[in-house]
């Protein structure tokens, strides 16, 4: 059994991919399974936290027990679900793969095909993590970054730009890391640089390691 390192902490985790609708029967999504976020939610609960899991489109199986589940399929729904709860949250962990773009307009009826090519216009979605970083107050904020190159440079840039306390960087070009896999490989950065190198391990194991790092960072900051 797990030590109650997060007893009394209110933790919000986002997980899975978002769905951005084109019309009533079509949408844009990505390969995120939600496994990493689900594993973090389950581990945080075992460590004594009060957990809210804001889930998009997932294929990670059933929701972890003892966790409050909020469904938020689109980037906008996820933005609303997270921002509404921010002031009542001690730790936010953004493991979701949020779509960067969405169709500029959503057709109210099923779109009909024509003989012509179809050009879709996409617009940017709101950046949830960036907004959370701007409004975080005392909330501890953890971001994720999936990269295929220049891991450290991109991770540090993202950490600063989005005002995160920790950033978990995954090199998704490596075997055993990233979308859909049961294992992950990660480097954890704080504002001073590389904090911890986590070799390939299962997502539940990585979830525990990450939460212990968060707990000890909070403890070191004297926030008990
Ligand atoms: O910029 P990038 O998408 O690589 O940043 C990844 C991090 O930002 C993840 O923690 C992801 O959940 C979050 N994110 C977000 N809202 C977006 C895009 C990314 O919260 N629109």
TrEMBL record:
GO terms for cellular component: phosphopantothenoylcysteine decarboxylase complex. This is Coenzyme A biosynthesis bifunctional protein CoaBC. Its cofactor is Mg(2+); FMN. The gene is coaBC. Residues 11-224 are annotated as: Phosphopantothenate--cysteine ligase. Residues 6-216 form the DNA/pantothenate metabolism flavoprotein C-terminal domain. Its EC number is 4.1.1.36, 6.3.2.5. Catalyzes two sequential steps in the biosynthesis of coenzyme A. In the first step cysteine is conjugated to 4'-phosphopantothenate to form 4-phosphopantothenoylcysteine. In the second step the latter compound is decarboxylated to form 4'-phosphopantotheine. Catalyzes two steps in the biosynthesis of coenzyme A. In the first step cysteine is conjugated to 4'-phosphopantothenate to form 4-phosphopantothenoylcysteine, in the latter compound is decarboxylated to form 4'-phosphopantotheine. The lineage of its organism: Bacteria, Bacillati, Bacillota, Bacilli, Bacillales. It comes from Paenibacillus swuensis. One of its GO terms (molecular function) is metal ion binding. In the N-terminal section; belongs to the HFCD (homo-oligomeric flavin containing Cys decarboxylase) superfamily. In the C-terminal section; belongs to the PPC synthetase family. It catalyses: N-[(R)-4-phosphopantothenoyl]-L-cysteine + H(+) = (R)-4'-phosphopantetheine + CO2; (R)-4'-phosphopantothenate + L-cysteine + CTP = N-[(R)-4-phosphopantothenoyl]-L-cysteine + CMP + diphosphate + H(+).
């Amino acid at each position: 059994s797990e030590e109650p390192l997060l007893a009394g902490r209110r933790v919000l985790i986002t997980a899975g991919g978002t769905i951005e609708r084109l019309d009533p029967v079509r949408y844009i999504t990505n390969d995120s399974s939600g496994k990493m976020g689900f594993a973090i939610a389950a581990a945080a609960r075992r460590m004594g936290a009060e957990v809210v899991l804001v889930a998009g489109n997932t294929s990670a199986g059933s929701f972890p027990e003892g966790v409050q589940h909020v469904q938020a399929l689109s980037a906008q729904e996820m933005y609303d679900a997270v921002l509404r709860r921010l002031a009542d949250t001690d730790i936010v962990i953004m493991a979701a793969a949020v779509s960067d773009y969405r169709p500029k307009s959503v057709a109210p009826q099923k779109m009909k095909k024509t003989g012509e090519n179809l050009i879709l216009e996409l617009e940017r979605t709101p950046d949830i993590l960036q907004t959370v970083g701007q409004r975080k107050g005392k909330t501890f904020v953890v971001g994720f970054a999936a990269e295929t190159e220049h891991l450290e440079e991109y991770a540090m840039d993202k950490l600063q730009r989005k005002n995160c306390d920790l950033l978990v960087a995954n090199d998704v070009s490596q075997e055993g890391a990233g979308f859909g896999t049961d294992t992950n490989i990660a480097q954890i950065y704080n504002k001073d640089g590389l904090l911890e190198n986590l070799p390939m391990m299962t997502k539940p194991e990585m979830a525990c390691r990450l939460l212990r790092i968060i707990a000890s960072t909070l403890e070191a900051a004297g926030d008990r």
